[in-house]
Automatic annotation (TrEMBL):
Binds 1 potassium ion per subunit. PROSITE patterns: YJEF_C_2, YJEF_C_3, YJEF_N. The keyword Nucleotide-binding applies. This is Bifunctional NAD(P)H-hydrate repair enzyme. Pfam families: Carb_kinase (PF01256), YjeF_N (PF03853). Its EC number is 4.2.1.136, 5.1.99.6. AMP binds at K477, G478, P479, D480, T481, G510. Keywords: ATP-binding, Isomerase, Kinase, Lyase, Metal-binding, Multifunctional enzyme, NAD, NADP, Nucleotide-binding, Potassium, Transferase. Residues 10-259 form the YjeF N-terminal domain. HAMAP family: NADHX_dehydratase (MF_01965), NADHX_epimerase (MF_01966). The gene is nnrD. It comes from Shimia abyssi.
Length: 567
């Protein structure tokens, strides 16, 4: 797990570092600008040479001069200050650089003003009004240093119009365009929520602009992994196949940010309210309870738990069978499918390795659950609303660790409070966007409103509120899956940037996820650990399988993922 920060947390760290006397704001800005230029040269090694010929393939630009040319768009705050540093360093590296400033140079904050002056001594600064399509198209690279973590309100039209064009540039699939590098955060995107504050101004048919590369400082920001910030429109990224890149450059304040297990966490230092802490489930598995996934040599099947996966009726059992297969592969000792009589034949012919028991109504289910060895239940995939309304209360009253998915959630759309009253701390709800809106319509509406102020209401906020209301863990699915516990503990399971897994968007993939989590519950994981580990493994499986993935492949590739983890 990796710590990710809100804009306020990052500001607090920066301030503490400056106030302690260990670094000046100006030095931090210099390191930030240097970080951007280093990241550019890492991403496009040809740019280091400062002069053409244009790299082949791909063609990054239209070159009509010897030197590479950068357009640097600077805003009125410290993000703009970083832009002036980048301009100077690129020029030192032999580039032609054109700088544009939004706003009044006299109003720049002190460190940005110093760097403005340093640049003024070596180059011109023009107003935003002078920017044209021709200028932007004639560059090898555009640097977006307009706004970073300080964005508070909708963008003025003048900036919106430039970003509108940049957006078309970045998103064009028909032409090779000069890449865009965002300093800290793509301008107009709120650093906490990943949502555009300026929605109406810039969004076009192809969506918000996606930089080829975003370079952020010290730690990634929460918004980098949420909502629009993770949309994947760019065809002009560092590597087209991989999609947009996010690079975190150190600026010397990292000792103040929790980086490794055992260190004090940022939240302990700056926010006594531990609930504000947010983890990122990224490439690193550090912090996940993976050792617990190994099976000790002396164990037998009952020492790894017994999961019950309830199925729907005839013709509707596929989803639950996928979940059951996931539960078995993730290591539950036994998995039993609870099947209504009309689906027995269908299930019996397709369940190698699984067991089956007859579960028609509430009485039969209560009887089944008298077996205390059944320690985890999955209910919802392919279940049907009627069956869910009858059986979910029985499952919940038996207080087993339980995953409620799909129909087990939607069936309570008219009376979510009824469901919340019966949930307990060992439950996990796994809604996708539509199911979330059925159970938490007010939170979904708030999330759907176009934000007019930053920090904007985010998927993290909504999931935390939902978990507190439901009194159990909520895993809000999507390409930006957010997992929250009632006490506010929260993580984002990222499937973006170097962990991009677009093939996961396939029918049945959510059923397998519910099965993974149920299997982990059966193995004794706590609800939050099971949700986090299940979601993380789910993405790892998709990455391990790659293109062509269908849901059935997810459980089958899990052994390979386990092997690579050294289990
Ligand atoms: N955190 C670090 O360790 C470092 C951060 N650096 C860089 O600094 C920015 C954050 O700088 P900050 O000055 O706080 O914020 P911004 O540059 O993003 O923007 C603030 C200014 O913009 C005005 N503003 C905000 N929204 C709008 C808008 N919609 N339209 C017009 N103007 C807007 C705001 O004005 P106010 O009236 O709201 O005060 C500010 O003037 C961070 O992202 C990093 O890039 C350091 O350089 C390195 C260390
Ligand atoms: K920016």
């Amino acid at each position: 797990m990796t710590e990710i920060l809100t804009a306020a947390q990052m500001r607090a760290i920066e301030l503490a570092a400056i106030e302690s006397g260990e670094v000046t704001g100006l030095e931090l800005m210099e390191r930030a600008g240097r970080g951007v230029v280093d990241a550019i040269f890492d991403a496009w090694p040809d740019f280091k040479t400062a002069r053409g010929p244009a790299p082949e393939p791909p063609k990054y630009f239209w070159q009509d001069e010897d030197a590479y040319k950068a357009i640097v768009l600077c805003g009125p705050g410290n993000n703009g200050g970083d832009g002036f540093v980048v301009a100077r360093l690129l020029r030192d590296a032999g580039w032609v650089v054109e700088v544009f400033l939004y706003g009044d140079a006299g109003q720049l904050p002190p460190d940005a003003k110093t760097n403005y002056q340093r640049w003024s001594e070596i180059g011109a600064i023009r107003a935003f009004a002078d920017i044209s399509e021709e200028i932007l198209n004639g560059a090898s690279l555009t640097i977006d240093a307009i706004f970073g973590t300080g964005l508070t309100r909708p963008l003025p039209d003048e900036i919106g119009n430039v970003l509108q064009f940049v957006s078309v540039q970045a998103n064009s699939r028909s032409k090779v365009r000069p890449p865009i590098v965002a300093v800290d955060v793509p301008s107009g995107i709120d650093a906490d929520s990943g949502r555009p504050i300026s929605h109406s101004v810039i969004e076009n048919d192809e969506g918000y602009y996606t930089p080829a590369l975003t370079v952020t400082f010290g730690a990634a920001k929460v918004g980098h992994f949420l909502d629009t910030c993770t949309s994947d429109y760019s065809c002009n990224s560092v590597s087209d196949r991989r999609g947009p890149s996010l690079v975190v450059k150190p600026i010397g304040v990292e000792h103040r940010i929790e980086v490794a297990a055992g260190n004090s966490r940022i939240v302990d230092l700056f926010e006594p309210d531990k609930a504000r802490h947010i983890d990122l489930l990224g490439r690193s598995s550090v912090g996940l309870n993976l050792l617990f996934l190994s099976k000790d040599r002396g164990g037998h099947k009952f020492s790894h738990g017994h999961a019950l996966v309830l199925t729907g009726g005839f013709g509707k059992t596929g989803a639950a069978r996928l979940a059951a297969r996931g539960a078995l592969r993730v290591g539950a000792g036994l998995v039993t499918l609870g099947v209504p009589p009309n689906a027995q034949m269908e299930v019996a012919s397709q369940i190698a390795g699984l067991m089956m028991t007859r579960v028609q109504g509430g009485e039969a289910l209560a009887e089944t659950l008298t077996d205390a060895r059944l320690n985890a239940v999955c209910v919802g995939p392919g279940f049907g609303h009627e069956r869910a309304r009858a059986l979910v209360p029985v499952v919940l009253s038996n207080k087993r660790a339980t995953v409620l998915d799909a129909d087990a959630l939607s069936a309570f759309a008219n009376a979510p409070e009824e469901l919340f009253e019966t949930l307990h701390e060992n439950c996990i709800l796994t809604p996708h966007k539509g199911e979330f809106a059925r159970l938490f319509p007010d939170l979904a509406n708030r999330l759907a409103e176009v934000p007019t102020r930053g920090p904007a209401y985010s998927k993290v906020d909504a999931t935390r509120e939902a978990a507190a209301r439901a009194g159990c863990v909520v895993l809000f699915k999507g390409p930006d899956t957010v997992i929250a516990a009632p006490d506010g503990k929260c993580s984002i399971n990222s499937a973006h940037y170097e962990r991009s897994a677009p093939w996961l968007a396939t029918a049945g993939s959510g059923d397998v996820l519910a099965g993974f989590i149920t299997g982990l519950l059966a193995r004794g994981f706590s609800a939050m650990d099971a949700a986090e580990t299940g979601a993380w493994l789910h993405v790892e499986c998709a990455i391990a399988f790659g293109p062509g993935l269908i849901a059935e492949d997810l459980p089958e590739i899990l052994p390979k993922v386990f092997c690579e983890l050294g289990l």
